[in-house]
Amino acid sequence: MSRNICKENRLDRKYLYIQTFGCQMNVNDSDKIVTLLRDEGYETTDDAECADLVLVNTCSIREKAAQKAYSQLGRFRMLKERNPELILAMGGCLAQQWGQKILARAPYLNVVFGTHNIHRLPEFIRMVEKNGSRVVETEFQTSVKSLGITAVPQNGAVSAYVTIMQGCNNFCAYCVVPHLRGREESRPADDVIPEVEKLADHGIREVTLLGQNVNAYGKTIAGSPGFAQLLRAIGRVKGIERIRFTTSHPKDLTEDLMRCFAEVEALCDHIHLPVQSGSDAILRRMNRGYTRDQYLEKIEGLRHFRPEISITSDVIVGFPGETEKDYQATLALMEAVKFDNLFSFKYSEREGTAAVGFEHQVPEKVKRERLQQLQALQEEHTLKRNRMLEGRVQDVLVEGKSRNSEHDITGRTRSNKIVNFRGGRELAGKTCSVLIKKACLHSLRGEMVEGTENPCSSK
Ligand code: SAH
Ligand code: SF4
Ligand code: F3S
CA-CA distance, 152 to 285, in Å (whole number)? Predict the structure, then answer.
């Protein structure tokens, strides 16, 4: 019934409802999809009931992520029952993993497209629109065309993602990504730098460079600059005030890259450097390619070049064979580093990965207990690190109005911490000097610095 109401208001427009799970790479892929489908006449809507095309961009990193996608499909099936003309599409890592199999499970899907086929989506949608055909395309390509698609940022956006590479060659024993995103491939610097310049011209002040292992940037292109050189070049782009990147693999974090934290002013005071475990035995079996001591040396190097740097990480508990001693070594590493934040996960077995055959699975109860204890310790550390900013003035790039109060605006410090403070929405996109008054676990409370004529600037 709701469809008719939607119809009345739609003025011959076509609407796309898109839902995204997973990492920032997937978020950026969704932005690319929106850009591509805009050229096909689709506008985005927040109302799935009114959409002509419903698309779910899926993730398969852990079993839980895959389950979220299943439950969305159930919801979408109901929409399709109410409106048989609705086009249902599924992309992303789970679509890549399932391929043809998903059609047997979800016969109401019109399009299933893998991670290397985003650029062909308009063609697939046209096929469905024209003759109601069903399309499944999950072939891997050797030169991935979607890597070169530029996602056009929303009006008024201050931050943008830029994909600089895709795929992964590391094959960590637990990880499904290399199986679903294919081999590592870098995007030429001649594409990346002009894209950043164009974004700066559109008012973007902060770019986040994306890839599964950005530290390996350039290795697949003869004569390409490496990641450190790329950072230096982007650091020279006028108008780009802040550069972030994710994700870094510790084994490829060179001294030259660390040095960028001393040399490239626009590079933010933050690095996400997933450690996964503090035990050498576990790191070896995970195939991570570094030891605990080597990881700690890198932390020391980073803090040497940028003492203010905020360090965040990922940890897996309950990897097969993880003993109490191994787990304690992870807690001890956390004590040694004092991460600003930590994303921690229970090990989840993924089809096709090396760890599937590993002995000594850790019982669910033990995993749960370890995770809880580890998260409680991290909360202490996060709070401690956040409190170090109390009484200090921070540069905050304003993103927009705060969710919690009409009178507040929200933004991020260079160390990627959220700050809420009094201010008007017109300050979005500006960088304000903010005195941090109170630190909480998930955000900081501040006040614009008084006595300064212009506490906010566009730099
Ligand atoms: N490319 C990034 C990680 C991408 S996946 C890197 O190498 O650091 C994000 C995080 O999910 C990983 O760092 C890991 O902590 C977690 N993860 C990946 N596979 C997992 C699995 N099978 N079970 C639990 N956590 C997993
Ligand atoms: Fe997965 Fe390891 Fe590649 Fe990261 S580096 S995507 S954890 S295989
Ligand atoms: Fe998920 Fe794929 Fe990213 S599995 S974490 S969406 S690369």
Answer: 41
Those residues of the chain that have pLDDT short of 70 are: 1-12, 451-453, 459
Pocket mutation for ligand 3, best pick of 59, 115, 246, 272 (most atoms within 8 Å of C-beta): 59
Pairwise CA distance, residues 345 & 317, whole Å: 6
Distance 274 CA to ligand 2 centre (A): 10
- Give strand pairing partners of 92: 58
| 24 CA closest ligand 3 atom index | 3
Q: How far is the CA of 415 from the centre of ligand 2 (A)?
A: 24
Domains in the chain, please, with CATH? 3-137 (3.40.50.12160), 145-387 (3.80.30.20), 393-457 (2.40.50.140)
Q: Which residues fall within 8 angstroms of residue 300, CB to CB, at 6 or more apart?
A: none
| Nearest ligand for residue 315 CA | 1
Burial of 357 from C-beta contacts in 10 A (0-12 / 13-18 / 19+): exposed
DSSP conformation letters of 25-68: HHHHHHHHHHHHHHTTTEEE-S-GGG-SEEEEEE--SSHHHHHH
**What pLDDT is recorded for position 441?**
95
In contact, 145 and 122? CB cutoff 8 Å: no
Q: How far apart are CA 411 and CA 37, in angstroms?
A: 30
Q: Which ligand is nearest to the CA of 180?
A: 3
Q: 0.90 exceeded by the pTM?
A: yes
